[in-house]
Amino acid sequence: MCPAASHLPRRESRMRGRLTRTATAIPLATLLLVTAGCAPSEKPGESVEGAEVTVWLQNGGTFEATQAYLEDWSANNPDGIQVKITAHASDSYAETLQLALRTGKGPDVFESPGPDKLNDAGYLLQLKEWLSAETQEAFGEVLVGPNPVATADDFYAIPLSTNTIRLAYNKDLFTEAGLDPEAPPSTLGEVKEACAAIADTTDAYCYGLPLKWTAWANWQADPIVQNTDADLSHPAAFNRATERFEFDRFVPVVEFYRELAQKEWLYPGATSLDNDTMRAAFANGEIAMFVSAAWDVATVNDNYASTIDWAAAPVPVPDGEQSVRAIMNIGKPYSVNADAGNTAAAVKVLEAIAGPDLQEELAQAGSTFPLRLDTAASIDIESMVKPYEDYVIADGDVQRQTSPVQSLELQGETYDQVIARLVIGNDDIASALKEAEDRYNAAWKSAVDSGLVDPTQFVY
Amino acid sequence: MTSRTSVKRRRAPQSYRLRRTLGDWATRAVLTAVGAAVLFPFVYAFFASFKPLPEILSSGARLLPQEWTLDNYFRAWEQAGFAQYFQNSLIVVLGVTVFDVVIASLLGYLLGRNLMPFGRTIQGVMAATLFVGLGTATLYPRFVIASALGIDNLVGVILVEVSGLTVIHVFLTRAFVSTLPMELEEAARVDGNGLIGTYRHIVFPLLRPILFTVAILAFESAWNNFQIPYVFTLASPELRTLVVGVFALRSTEDGSQAYDLMLAGAMLIIIPVTIVFLLFQKHFIAGMTEGSVKG
Amino acid sequence: MTVLDRAPLTRGAGTPGGAEPKSPAGRHRFDGWRRRERRLAGTIGFVALIPFVLFALVPVAYVVVLSFMRYNGVGDPTWVGIHNYALAFADSSWWSSVTNTLVLAGGSIIIELPLALLLAVLLNRALRWTSGFRTVFFLPHIVSIAVMGVVFFFILRPVDGILNGILRGMGVLSADVDWLGSGPTAMLSLILVSVWSGFGINTIFFLVGLQTIPHDVYESASLDGASGWQQFRAITLPMLTPVMRIVVMLSIVFSLRSFDLVKTLTNGGPAGQTDVMFTYLFEYFFSLQRGSQYGYASALAVIASVIIAVVSIIYLAMSRANEQRSDFGDARRRRREERNAR
């Protein structure tokens, strides 16, 4: 018998979550064993025949293929489930989704960026007893938390792709500058040396830093720091062991970017540069390096029709530090609405999206780095366009742990705004970071004390 | 009126005309320069909409495209389902204009002639809401109220947009009403008209010039409004208006923006409202002139 | 003084309780049909106000109430009294954004109004193509500033930006300027784009105002030998005062409420140096870098409204005081009183 936890009203299921989290391990394990063998059940009396399921997708690389697949599926699936697809602009997708879910107008199945935040609000269906064993096995460990898509005992989103983080660099420019294109820099100091060489011998700019992009720090500042210590959670360097934010770790990163800015090795207009324009310039051979994510492969190659010879290397570390891991982020999580019209039908649509056919299609097109184990195994990496293989999950690539930033009531500048200000200006780095760190730690303490966050999610 | 300067004779016609002509040319020069500066961004956007995306991002300095393409427009039209959105925009714009004109004229009359109880209070409250930015902060409650009333669709969009225009437009009509001579209304009363009759037969026709102005302002505001139709059509994309549709073309899932589609879409949005204004601009200005909007 | 007060009016034959002349004490003002009419007016008026009440007043009240609560979108809001306001007073980034807003508004108005006035005067000379120019000047106002914000972003780019290209071509610049890359130039860019967008409607307001000044006033001034400039100062400016006051008031209010322009052009950058009040508080509704704080954002919205109200009231008070001082103001006041007494 499968427990019907997801039928509880939202608040109760959240409380249940908290209670079971504090339960001891043995009954938990028993529960897991029991539920692992459950097949998805239909709500008593609710049939999936001819049900209509609304799906939201983000406008972007995988949109067309996914839409085509779902339309086909909708026409041909044996239960006659009708799928209604809507596309949304992705830069405001998170807000749109939140607003829709908040007002009860949310879709049944949707891409769910920031799934942990959505789950806290109780919007997401807990999937463990709904999803088929086959699908759960196909994704394996990534569905076992705690991580952005799962708590310790359940999960609420299926991540379809992964974004490994690498230093993207232009091999042509390296050659031109007299650097070895097969030996990219591995520390910040080496990056600076490379920049000096490139500035001397080429017209190109060394580094692309898109400060206008609201997530720039998450992808270009945090990874450098996060890779040096396995206890750090992302973003903003919250240490799970010491239970505090440690912004002093950002000092070398800030100094590094400030030096690049002052020596004019950064692509001009960094402060008004968004990720797009920067990548277009990279694709054009105007920029030598930037810290990139796997999604950049399709963008640089396809969207910007690049002709450069480029590759990706591990993210550099601050001088004197060692890299103990390479954080990556799960991408493309999909979830089901806890209040879906027809839950069973919605789950079937989710299974179709996460199923081997679509995943293989997307993977073959180079649009994703599939997390589905059988699909990942089936890709012939050699045949993919360069530098796809550089971004494939390797040893050391580890899913990032989420820090509590998204739940904290912070006023004033956020850490990325402080860092951006320090990079382009001349303020004292240590004191500015300390001031921000104090604010963040105070907010953390206040959130824990008031019960706003459950500390066990974020610390050991 | 005595002036501080001594009385001078009228200047000789020739040098006066010369000065006047120079003045005319100087005027034309200034106006043209300003006009060119004003038009430049439009011209730039126009040509940019024919460039393919990589060129937009990398060859911004060139005005004319190296590679002309109509693809942006085709894709914008198709992907954005422009035909449907165009229709929705028309519905919203017409709805807003009609409601706004009716409400503004009624309230302008009732408040301008002090016919309503609490007239002063109402005007005070309306003025107070001017200071509040009816923006993001009020988005959620407006949507909730509309949902509760079951009008979280284009009807809701229309009413919410009207609510945002009421204050200023009532201000305009009220000022206009206060310049109308009362004799006409009195005559109407003498003829046996009540409140409604006077309004229908006398006041409303007299208000025509300012109502034209109000209508045009309502039109362009409703045409360009983004936030409200956006929020209200979240769950029903088939109800989207043109502006919302164009903005939905952006795709930054992997951090990239479809500027090419946005520019083409932007051109498609600008053209209808420009045409409307071109056609009606005389009326637009006449409305304000005849009303002689005075403090 | 209303239509209803004029004496004597007969509603028409056969109306009971018909026309009573206004008694000296005015006590019978709303007898009988007048009261019925007032009620009818009230009903119609309140019906016409329904959209405003429902979708403007109530939401504003909601925001005010929410400003005393703590709410992150999950669960129920909890009452925290003035806690949010206390936090706001301590929030230096907020007050920076307030300063930025005032600078943006002040800068725009100082440039825009004289420009609009100048253009209105020029247009008033009624040369050919006046209506063409009018349309051109008004175009920026009728297109969505959010869309044009993107266009300007491209125009102002440091690399491959066309403005830099033009200025360098003209020899004004020797190197590319990163217009949006540093605080002062970004603010200047915002001000100029704001002027570009808004001067059209103000030009038209002024033009309308100018056209209400009768020509004979100018003619007699010319006969007296007053020069163009003297005429401008002694006739045009004073007679434009009421229009000017409206224009400035509306400009103040709308530029203090700036959101779309800043959001699309700079998004508050670089590093928050062009954040204005409403782009700053937007973050507290939708941000991935901090927890949602709807209560705090509402408090900020309320503070912003108060600031706008205060600035507007200061301006009104100043302009009324100015008017008292001018001789012409006296004449105008006299005429206004006459009109009201009519």
Describe this structure in words.
The complex is a heterotrimer of chains A (460), B (295) and C (342). Chain A has 460 residues and is α/β, with parallel strands linked by helices. Chain A is 40% helix and 14% strand. Chain B folds into 2 domains: 4-48; 82-294, MetI-like (MetI-like fold, Orthogonal Bundle). Chain B contains 13 helices and no strands. In chain B, helix 3 (71-79) crosses helix 13, helix 4 runs parallel beside helix 7 (154-178) and helix 7 packs antiparallel against helix 10 (208-224). The two termini of chain B are 26 Å apart. Chain C is mainly alpha-helical. Chain C has 2 domains: 3-66; 85-341, Orthogonal Bundle (MetI-like fold), CATH 1.10.3720. Chain C has a two-stranded antiparallel sheet with strand order 1-2. The model of chain C is unreliable at 1-26 (pLDDT under 50).
List keywords for this structure.
heterotrimer; B: mainly alpha; MetI-like fold; 2 domains; C: 342 residues; mainly alpha; disordered N terminus
What is the fold's blueprint, element by element?
The complex is a heterotrimer of chains A (460), B (295) and C (342).
Chain A: H1 10-22, H2 25-36, E1 52-58, H3 63-76, E2 82-88, H4 93-102, E3 109-111, H5 115-120, H6 133-139, E4 158-170, H7 171-176, H8 188-201, E5 205-207, H9 216-220, H10 222-226, E6 232-233, E7 238-239, E8 244-245, H11 251-262, H12 275-283, E9 287-293, H13 295-303, E10 310-313, E11 326-336, H14 343-354, H15 356-364, H16 373-378, H17 388-391, E12 397-399, H18 415-424, H19 429-450
Parallel strand pairs in A: 1-2, 1-3, 5-9, 11-12
Antiparallel strand pairs in A: 3-11, 4-9, 4-10, 4-11, 6-7, 7-8
Chain B: H1 13-48, H2 53-58, H3 71-79, H4 82-112, H5 119-131, H6 136-148, H7 154-178, H8 182-190, H9 195-206, H10 208-224, H11 227-232, H12 242-247, H13 259-291
Helix pairs in contact in B: 3-13, 4-7, 4-10, 7-10, 8-9, 10-13
Chain C: H1 32-48, H2 50-66, E1 69-70, E2 78-79, H3 83-90, H4 92-124, H5 130-142, H6 145-155, H7 162-169, H8 183-211, H9 215-223, H10 228-256, H11 260-265, H12 277-282, H13 294-325, H14 327-341
Antiparallel strand pairs in C: 1-2
Helix pairs in contact in C: 2-13, 3-13, 4-8, 4-10, 5-8, 8-10, 10-13
